[in-house]
Amino acid sequence: MEENGRTFSDVRNVILSAHKNAGAEDKVAFYNEWAANYNEDVHILDYRAPMLAARCLSAAFPGDREGALVLDVACGTGLVGAQLQKVKFRHFIGVDGSCAMLELAKSSGLYQELKQCLLGKETLPVEPESCDLVIIVGALSVGQVPVTVVKELWQAAKPGGYVCMTTRANAENQEYKRQLERVMAEMEQEGLWTCVDVVEVEQWERAVSDHETGYISGVVYLYKKIPRLGFKCD
Ligand SMILES: C[S@@+](CC[C@H](N)C(=O)[O-])C[C@H]1O[C@@H](n2cnc3c(N)ncnc32)[C@H](O)[C@@H]1O
Predict the structure, then answer these.
(1) Which residues of 11-156 form beta strands (DSSP E)?
(2) Which residues does a 6 A CB cutoff place in the pocket of ligand 1?
(3) Is 3.40.50.150 the CATH classification of the domain at 8-225?
(4) Among the listed residues 117, 112, 78, 77, the one whose alpha carbon sits nearest the alpha carbon of residue 95
(5) Per-residue pLDDT reduced to its tens digit, 2-29
(6) What is residue 67's DSSP assignment?
(7) CA 139 to ligand 1 centroid distance, Å
(8) 114, 169 in Cβ contact below 8 A?
(9) Where along the chain do its domains lie?
(10) What are phi and psi of 163, to 5 degrees?
């Protein structure tokens, strides 16, 4: 990683400068600005979400990893792809709203395809039921990707495929987390997917806000899309 001599205080200032009620375009503009320092800054933040998500998925994924097609939504600079490559996944499509983040993902050499998309405003640019695994890390939270996108993640997964999602569990994200879990539970009740694992993690990343100290907590959710039953009418 290129070192720019960044400090925790620099990182804290950047994150606190992002307005949580900003629109998608503003949020993506924020990431365009942050892209050059992102990898170094999240290292300082001890941001463990990509590793934790990859670990959860790796423990549960039964299929052929080298042949599996992975859709990394809100891929950023490619930290999730790097973690999944360590556990033998090889084929990645990345989607993100920020061109600057996508440029860095491209330079990682991990992704066969990269697509720009403003999630929540534009439709996820992949064929329905085309991916063995759909993953979104660090982007389902207040002020970022809306919970309505969860249905699109499900849609992109093949029947029998997996959807891995993360969110923060700190005070400011509690309402978003409740909404997210409600949507996930409703989809399970509709028979669209089944919950494989929920991993609650205390040390998710270092806290940056004034009213939090130490680490904030977070959650990894893993769901499996239920294959449709083929009904035959006589
Ligand atoms: C915290 S970063 C996470 C990146 C990567 N998944 C990781 O874990 O390092 C959040 C990413 O979500 C993207 N993002 C946020 N809101 C978005 C939106 N509405 N549409 C598309 N991308 C969005 C940002 O551009 C950024 O790359």
Answers:
(1) 69-73, 91-96, 113-116, 131-136
(2) 24, 27-28, 31, 49-50, 74-76, 79-80, 96-98, 101, 118-120, 137-139, 144-145
(3) yes
(4) 117
(5) 567 899 999 999 999 987 667 889 999 9
(6) T
(7) 5
(8) no
(9) 8-225
(10) -125, 120
Alpha-carbon torsion 73, 15, 31, 182, what sign?
positive
DSSP H or E run through 197: strand 193-206
- Please give the DSSP secondary-structure letter assigned to residue 232: -
Answer yes or no: are the C-beta atoms of 60 and 162 closer than 8 Å: yes
pLDDT of residue 214: 95
Give dist(CA 192, CA 196) in Å, integer: 13
Alpha helices by DSSP H, listed for 49-116, are: 49-60, 79-86, 99-108
Q: Residue 3 C-alpha to ligand 1 middle, in angstroms?
A: 22
Helix or strand or coil: residue 80?
helix
- Bridge partners, residue 157, by sequence: 131
**93-128, pLDDT tens digit by residue?**
999 999 999 999 999 999 999 999 999 999 999 999
SS3 for 1-33 is: CCCCCCCHHHHHHHHHHCCCCCCHHHHHHHHHH
What tokens appear for 129 in the block? 């039921």
